[in-house]
């Protein structure tokens, strides 16, 4: 049984899907700020370029939030899907879209009523937006850290 699984578990392509290139904008370390939250996130490409990894270190309403997210191309849906693993045991799925200077992150599938939408400035070093969900939400700004 294990032998069969290993034999069929081949990568779909040696080259990353072109849609992943839109995520290049996120690569680097960012400070995150807004009402009730602040911290840093770092995005980096996994060797091979098939997944963008986000490391999350935030304080939200006085509570530390740490996690890691893997973002990759999902051939079945034709979207950039992610899996977030939080230090408190959370396992969440998101869908990313970057079109022009607009970043949208849906909780779950595109069109979800829970999402983040932000706009990058001309330099691409800052994005201002908000997380929105039925009955709530909050503003959030991300600013690139230059070393």
Q: Descriptors for this entry?
A:
ten-stranded antiparallel β-barrel; 147 residues; mainly beta; Lipocalin
Briefly characterize the structure.
The protein has 147 residues and is mainly β. The chain has one helix spanning 2-8; strands at 28-34, 37-45, 51-60, 63-74, 79-86, 91-99, 102-107, 115-120, 126-133, 136-144.
Query: What is the helix/strand order?
Result: HEEEEEEEEEE
How many domains? 1
What is the CATH architecture annotation?
A: Beta Barrel
Weakly predicted, low-confidence segments: 1-10
Count of extended strands: 10
Overall 3D geometry? globular
- The value of Rg in angstroms is 16 Å
Q: How many helix segments?
A: 1
Strand order of the largest sheet: 1-2-3-4-5-6-7-8-9-10
Name of the CATH first level: Mainly Beta
Largest sheet: 10 strands, antiparallel, barrel
CATH superfamily: Calycin beta-barrel core domain
Structural class: mainly beta
Distance between the termini: 50 Å
Which strand-content bin applies to the residues? over 45%
Predict the CATH topology: Lipocalin
Report the mean per-residue pLDDT as an integer.
93
Q: Portion of residues in helices?
A: under 10%
